[in-house]
């Protein structure tokens, strides 16, 4: 397998001039979601995506695991165009945890065991317990009905379900937005610990300052589907270089101050 | 003749009573049929017309599912079960085709309506399955199953109550037209089974074809097709 476009160490994930447009309903113009987005996430690194709602953050994540088909440009996974890969295999290696975690009907155990029959995921009782432990949940939860869990627990079960497939990349869509501060803080800790323990590459849409700081890496600022700024979080210690990003962060309670202060 | 007027009176009264009773029975039957027709029209309108974003290719899908299921079941009925000679004898073909197609349309409309509603409300579930690496067909399977079940409910209910709660229009009509009740019942049993087959075939075919429209070859859910 020679990939002529691959550099010696291609990034784990890269978007190249990505554009996404939904065909409009009959007689209405097409809806532009993403416009010329280029970004690279090296292996084991992190990327945080921020921006106002409707700026295409979730759509960008969905392009990374090919739930969405870009209209223009391409997504590369370890240097290879994702269109040349089996989408089902890609999604097991690039796991996505949605903003509103979806639990299927049945118990937590049923949920954790929901994997494609051909995925060769170790779903032994021991593994399920270990994975629940990894996301900070008690193994007693296995027999609970998914519908009785709290928001934070649901988020963790969805995370554990994704982790069972042993992904190399974790795409997190606002993992803390639906949680109260203590639960949000615990999810931030969990994600940081997981990233270190599993050498995960993480792309997170989040406005949680603590998560931005913990993930470090780069910060991508999207506005109306276009990249407004792409900066290293560390470089922002004093002040984000981009005035619009600075203004955006300043408008969010504490984010600018906390990220800048880190 | 002293009996003449009596017989005539009785006859008029009998006819009146008979007409009243037959009218009631027919009314019930017709009403049920009309109810189904209304359901059919409503469901079709909802599945096809009311949506701001109608499914592309819906007419082709409906035509394929309905023609296929009706032709198959009708051919089986005419050629294998009833064995009509010649096969195109209108006395048999027209009522059988009408009933089979009518029920198949009803089933397809119910199935399509339910499928589209479920795809909307359970889009998150579909994408969660896709994100875990399930194939598109597997991810839509719960919604496909629910839609087919919903489409079969009227038929299954009909099968459970036939002869006990309701006398189907066809059987009633046949008895009134002079058939021996046992023959009418035999036909009714045949028709019930044919309709079960037709509704099952039509709903499964329609739902499978429609569900495939919401998926791409890369196992993506075309949820923008559901956007208003």
Main attributes of the structure:
heterodimer; A: 262 residues; alpha/beta; 6-stranded mixed beta sheet; globular; disordered C terminus; B: 228 residues; mainly alpha; 7 helices; elongated
Descriptive account of the structure:
The complex is a heterodimer of chains A (262) and B (228). Chain A has 9 helices and 10 strands. Chain A has 262 residues and is α/β, with parallel strands linked by helices. Chain A has a 6-stranded mixed β-sheet, with helices on both faces. The radius of gyration of chain A is 19 Å and the shape is globular. Chain B is mostly helical and 228 residues long. The chains are: A alpha/beta (262), B mainly alpha (228). Chains A and B meet through helix 2 and helix 5 of A and helix 4 of B.
Oligomer: heterodimer
Helix content of chain A: 25-40%
Q: What sequence of helices (H) and strands (E) makes up the elements of chain B?
A: HHHHHHH
DSSP helix count of chain B?
7
Bulk shape of chain A: globular
- Determine Rg of chain B (CA atoms, Å): 22 Å
Order of helices and strands of chain A: EEEHEEHEHHHEHEHEEHH
Please outline the major beta sheet of chain A.
6 strands, mixed
Cα shape of chain B? elongated
Amount of beta strand of chain B: under 5%
* Major β-sheet strand ordering of chain A: 6-7-8-3-9-10
Produce a short descriptive summary.
The complex is a heterodimer of chains A (262) and B (228). Chain A has 262 residues and is of the alpha/beta class. Chain A contains nine helices and ten strands.
Helix and strand layout, with pairings?
The complex is a heterodimer of chains A (262) and B (228).
Chain A: E1 13-22, E2 31-41, E3 46-50, H1 57-64, E4 72-77, E5 80-81, H2 87-93, E6 94-97, H3 108-112, H4 125-134, H5 151-163, E7 169-173, H6 181-198, E8 201-205, H7 209-215, E9 218-223, E10 226-232, H8 243-250, H9 255-261
Parallel strand pairs in A: 3-8, 3-9, 6-7, 7-8
Antiparallel strand pairs in A: 1-2, 1-4, 4-5, 9-10
Chain B: H1 3-50, H2 58-81, H3 90-121, H4 123-131, H5 136-161, H6 169-176, H7 181-213
